[in-house]
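Teaching assistant's notes for section 4

Start the section by putting this record on the projector. Ask students to predict, before seeing the second block, whether Transcription initiation factor IIB will look compact or extended. Collect guesses on the board.
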Amino acid sequence: MTDTRIRTYSDEREEENEETTTRSAEREQCPECGGRLISDAEHAETVCEDCGLVVEEDEIDRGPEWRAFDAAEKDKKSRVGAPTTNMMHDQGLSTNIGWQDKDAYGKALSSRQRQKMQRLRTWNERFRTRDSKERNLKQALGEIDRMASALGLPENVRETASVIYRRALEEDLLPGRSIEGVATSSLYASARQAGTPRSLDEISAVSRVDKMELTRTYRYVIRELGLEVQPADPESYVPRFVSDLDLSDETERMARELLDSARTEGVHSGKSPVGLAAAGVYAAALLTNEKVTQNEVSEVASISEVTIRNRYKELLEASDTAAPA
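Reveal the predicted structure now:
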């Protein structure tokens, strides 16, 4: 009796497999001419390669609704998880428990559940920073993000600053230096490399270290890591100063021309790029009949009015010298 049941079950499975194989073969062959079927994803159709018969139409597209033209764009648009980032000490791979005491439906948790979630958050934070290196990274990257937000620096600058700090940590450059000092130096170097520089005064204003320590640590970091940081170009400061002073595009263009003439005459040598940029904007505003005072430019550029006056005279002299007779 048992053997009969087993044979009957085996026969049924074989028949099912044969039917599945037959249906698969039918789906792969054209019912009219027996030709091979191909899928046309663009028109959501299955057609015969030989006779052109449309076998199926209005098929469901099970792929993503977005398009990507390279691997980087595909990774960026994918929604299967957050992309890894150097701006977090664990590169964003760990779990983050939200601070809101609410469930998935937006309802408030009970007192007992809130206590449980608080304990989970505590243990989660302990597991995320298991050793001193991770705690160091967490503090430093938090500082970089805070300072970059205060200075209005873009995400690519923050990412580069995080990489520089990680390199400094791996090269064992931190002993004898503060975490804040190395983090600030990394951000300063990153901003200059990206062509969005900030002056030492601006950086030190949002940092927890003074200007002297920042300068000393910055020189040490770029020397030990072999970073290639070009001297700051005064023209890179012009757009920000013009925007903060609410001046016209004509003034920006004139300021660039004045700075270009000064570079040709060698005025840039040994001068602060911030001072030259501020003086260029001030001189351009006067030449284009826009109302702006030295005090306003001084506050935006974080330099003294005396510096603006001195550089202003030098720029006008260089412009007169470079002008064709």
